[in-house]
Specification:
Two copies of one chain form a homodimer.
Chain A: H1 24-37, E1 49-51, E2 55-56, H2 61-73, E3 78-83, E4 86-92, E5 100-104, H3 114-122, H4 142-159, E6 168-172, H5 180-187, E7 191-196, H6 199-207, E8 213-214, H7 218-230, E9 235-240, H8 243-253, E10 259-260, H9 279-288, H10 290-313, E11 317-318, H11 325-331, H12 343-352, E12 357-363, H13 368-381, H14 386-398, E13 406-411, H15 416-429, E14 436-440, E15 448-449, H16 467-479, E16 483-488, E17 498-506, H17 510-533, H18 537-546
Parallel strand pairs in A: 3-5, 5-16, 6-7, 6-10, 7-9, 8-9, 10-11
Antiparallel strand pairs in A: 1-2, 3-4, 12-13, 12-14, 14-17, 15-17, 16-17
Helix pairs in contact in A: 1-2, 4-5, 8-10, 9-10, 10-11, 13-14, 13-15, 15-17, 16-17, 17-18
Bound molecules: nicotinamide-adenine-dinucleotide (NAD) (2 copies).
Domain Urocanase C-terminal (chains A, B): 350-544
Protein name (chains A, B): Urocanate hydratase
Family (chains A, B): Belongs to the urocanase family.
């Protein structure tokens, strides 16, 4: 389903305080939808693709136009339903109800495979929503920067005495999400070599300050990173190449690499370039014979993962960074693919047990000063959190905004609503020049079932139980979120995950404050609840200390 | 996970107007949960099994107790979360929010298989919720009676001049749902022979007036039904036997059968008894070697379906009655299993296109007079609907209440809320002695994705798209329903369906009236919307005539 070129256009969210829609409750999703497609934000805006392989914001341009038109006229007691990027109905609800309800890419289990998904996509019946693409709360590469920074920070603490100084990381994939890796490593004082087949992707990260430099070839790259490593000087270097080839080559050369991961779009075999195929041939070849392309992509992934396991055998810290590359390599015939862990059980689960996850907000004004003001507010609200202070400070210095100015920081249960309520006050008082939206990634503490990533190796074996994200979505809908979404297949691919999102608008009104209090307590609360149920002691403590009611532990 | 016998007990919903919980909004789910487990209602109450193979109302007795305890104390701005029959959290929401949110049996796609489901069930992590078992709005066999009556009525109109008089129907399975078949056929003036392996199931239907008589053996049964058919005298006869054996035998004998279907619990191969296994050996054998039992059950289903196709080849009207037996027979090695259609594309889809589906309500008073009063109200509200009048009149005469008195009738978009609002007025005025709950089956116009049943052979090929039921659940949550549920695997089995339910309490208050208006317009509205999107002309007309907003058709 490619649109006629005439319907393509450059999209950018409105700035300032003049409304196109009838209220900020509908102006907000309108601006955030458009912001997702801003060329500064989206990876392939002409195709409505935001990030993560083929993660889209709307089914097609006709659907985009209809969403815009409907949001512009939507009343404060009406709700728009969006089915895989297409607006399908408008219903009368009430003031506490979400203004938009979204379900993207969901398939009945027996049909939840890439080939079936693609067949239905070809028929025009669905689209791939990834996580925050189809739910209109992607904020550019910063969105993942904090998570990546946290992850590398955890590795630094666990294995390298608190800093990555003097270590070398090897990774692949410098796209929308993967592009955060070089900056996250250098923010942790390390050196990193990142491989991508597509030079434009690497160049874009250099332009945006996420990547320091581009090497001429692999020899040049290795020389530069080893020099920096020797001097304990933070540096990120990009090199054009296929990760399958380059990873194997570096292993064979015996280059002293300390940490290895990958963030190519491995979750979708058509978005991973097999060895022997050029970037120019890519899309036509994938489209013309998806099955053969899949086979070849998996064979290359098998080779790449084999090299990763080789690095692990040689003593490196190796982890899967949430793109399902282990499972794809296994399907490609490599037996030891699951020899290294996913990053969630390895580093993130303890945060999830406290309801901590990628809390984020964006300034609808478009004014960076609004984000600077919220940054200060966060530091005032949590004066004792040293880790948070370091992040907010560094982010303020290093993060280049893409699209509407935005910020991310990980906050937990009974923390997020404090920030939300403060922001709402700041909107009311005029400290902020316009309302802000407050949301999060679907990758969060209580909003995902994804056995190769967020729920890998749960203590009670409940990895594949998908009731939890659905309860999360229902509860956010019942708590006053402004838009709520349920997606399938984000991150790790079709058949492998179910997850939910929520966004709430702080427009400065007392009603918004009430809703913010409910949503930003309840949403991370489902994360604590889910980890209590799975038997995590820290979650039980948090529930107890912070007053979360768990019926099976009462009475 | 069997409970210690000591925790088992006989459960029955309270009657009358004295509240155990703090309001009718929470008393209602409490009574309906208990009503689902009333021995008059549930098929195996000791195991918390309500109907449909292993469809349960709560995970175990401990979870049941915790749900009851929590509902008793729940405030009007709190919401209880239930994960596969276990209460997992209580959150502060608001007055318009549902009091209970339920997600049952949901699994991530790649793990959505019976063996994986059972493994997780063994670990105590999930339960099978079927459709209305885990969502607390099962009302006994009447629940399916109307649908079955409608289905046989449609066949009568399509093939037999408007009545089944002088026709003979053969079917299998006389359980919670299947037990409606004999009465539905005789209400359409036909003759029916029903086969069940378990004599107690047949005896129960005789006791409750759903089945006329039990034959001594197959010869006796055939003699009785042929005599009745010859005399064009409505009659239902039950015979003990395995459907695989009996169907083949009757085909071989050349008995003049006009209509063939089946409602054994084929959706779950462990709930279908293979040939050569006795009822007494059943559960132990299924538990001890699930894989081998599955193989044998599928082989028997293949044999039964082969006989069904044989009847079709001989000119009979043959259809799958929503238990996935065709797919199981195919897995059992029989190639032509899909030679006959499912009942939805064959008879029900035109109703779904108008948002028509199994609307139902129950009198929380326990007083049959309340249902009689609502029956009268329905006839007054829709004086011109001859079909509805016939059903309500017959139901009033023939339906034996199981548990709380209840009624079902199929109503469409912009009809259901009229009934709901009238009932609410009747509660307010004292015409009814206590509030009523208003709900429906998950098998409804906009609430299911199930490619072997409700969404089989959709006009646009969207059978497996599961966004629709999720949007339905989110919208009901956003519209003021009292409890909302999302289930996986009901009807047709794990991996094959996703569906949603809603129940709303008419407690006579103005707030309830507002909620009823939203929910009972929006809920069937999603059905019309779904069928508009799939291209059904009648749905487009209904949307146009009755004022449903479809964004892609505007602007
Ligand atoms: N860990 C997390 O928190 C997280 C979050 C979101 C997404 N993800 C996953 O990370 C992956 C990357 O996401 P993204 O948004 O960056 O995707 P993207 O599509 O924007 O970028 C993928 C990049 O990989 C490159 N690539 C493809 N094949 C390659 C190969 N063989 N060798 C080298 N480079 C190759 C592409 O050129 C592209 O630049 C996805 O699988 C996504 O689902 C992880
Ligand atoms: N068409 C619909 O609208 C609809 C609605 C709900 C459920 N269903 C499906 O219908 C089926 C029956 O539901 P139910 O609630 O009656 O289930 P149930 O478990 O209460 O009853 C099933 C009956 O089948 C009998 N049976 C099992 N194997 C048999 C065999 N080989 N031969 C003869 N009898 C056999 C059992 O003894 C039992 O009485 C299920 O698959 C259910 O999912 C259909």
């Amino acid at each position: 389903m490619t649109d006629a070129p005439t319907t393509r256009r450059t999209v950018r969210a409105a700035r300032g305080t003049e409304l196109t829609a009838k209220s900020w409750q509908t102006e907000a999703p309108l601006r955030m939808l458009m912001n997702n497609l801003d060329p500064e934000v989206a990876e392939r805006p002409d195709d409505l693709i935001v990030y993560g392989g083929t993660g889209k914001a709307a089914r097609n341009w006709e659907a985009f136009d209809a969403i815009v038109r409907t949001l512009e006229g939507l009343e404060s007691d009406e709700t728009l339903l969006v089915q895989s990027g297409k607006p399908v109905g408008v219903f009368r609800t009430h003031e506490w109800a979400p203004r938009v309800l979204i379900a993207n890419s969901n398939l009945v289990g027996d049909w939840a495979t890439w080939p079936e998904f693609r067949r239905l996509e070809q028929l025009g019946l669905t689209m791939y929503g990834q996580m925050t693409a189809g739910s209109w709360i992607y904020i550019g590469t910063q969105g993942i920067l904090q998570g990546t920074y946290e992850t590398f920070g955890a590795i630094a603490r666990a294995r390298f005495g608190g800093s990555l100084a003097g270590t070398l990381t090897l990774t692949g994939g410098c796209g929308g999400m993967g592009g955060a890796q070089p900056l996250a490593v250098t923010m942790n004082e390390g050196v990193v070599l990142i491989v991508d087949v597509d030079e434009t992707r690497l160049a874009r990260r250099v332009e945006h300050g996420y990547l320091d430099e581009l090497a001429v070839d692999l020899d040049d790259a290795v020389a530069r990173v080893l020099a920096a490593k020797g001097e304990r000087r933070p540096l990120s270097v990009g090199v054009v190449g296929n990760a399958a080839t380059v990873f194997s080559e570096l292993l064979a050369r015996g280059v002293a690499i300390d940490i290895v991961t990958d963030q190519t779009s491995a979750h979708d075999p058509l978005s991973y370039l097999p060895e022997g195929v050029t970037v120019d041939e890519w899309h036509e070849l994938a489209a013309s014979d998806a099955e053969d392309f899949t086979r070849r992509a998996r064979a290359s992934m098998a080779k790449q993962v084999e090299a990763m396991v080789g690095f692990q055998d040689a003593g490196a810290e190796v982890f899967d960074y949430g793109n399902s590359i282990r499972r794809e390599a296994e399907l490609g015939g490599y037996q030891r693919a699951f020899a290294f862990p996913g990053f969630v059980p390895a580093y993130i689960r303890p945060l999830f047990a406290e309801g901590k996850g990628p809390f984020r907000w964006a300034a609808l004004s478009g004014d960076p000063a609004d984000i600077a003001a919220t940054d200060r507010a966060i530091l005032e609200l949590f004066p004792d959190d040293e880790h948070l202070r370091r992040w907010i400070t560094k982010a303020g210095e290093k993060v280049h905004f893409e699209g509407l100015p935005a910020r991310i920081c990980w906050l937990g249960y009974k923390e997020r609503h404090l920030a939300g309520l403060r922001f709402n006050e700041m909107v009311a008082s005029g400290e902020l020049s316009a309302p802000v939206v407050i949301g999060r990634d679907h990758l969060d503490s209580g909003s995902v079932a994804s056995p190769y990533r967020e729920t890998e190796a749960m203590a009670d074996g409940s990895d594949a139980i998908a009731d939890w994200p659905l309860l999360n979505a229902l509860l956010n809908t019942a708590s006053g979120a402004t838009w709520v979404s349920i997606h399938h297949g984000g991150g790790v691919g079709i058949g492998r995950s179910i997850h939910a999102g929520q966004v709430i608008v702080a427009d400065g009104t007392p009603l918004a404050a009430e809703k913010i209090e409910r949503v930003l307590v309840n949403d991370p609360g489902t994360g604590v609840m889910r980890h209590v149920d799975a038997g995590y002691e820290r979650a039980v403590e948090v529930a107890h200390e912070r007053g979360l009611r768990i019926p099976m532990q009462e009475g």
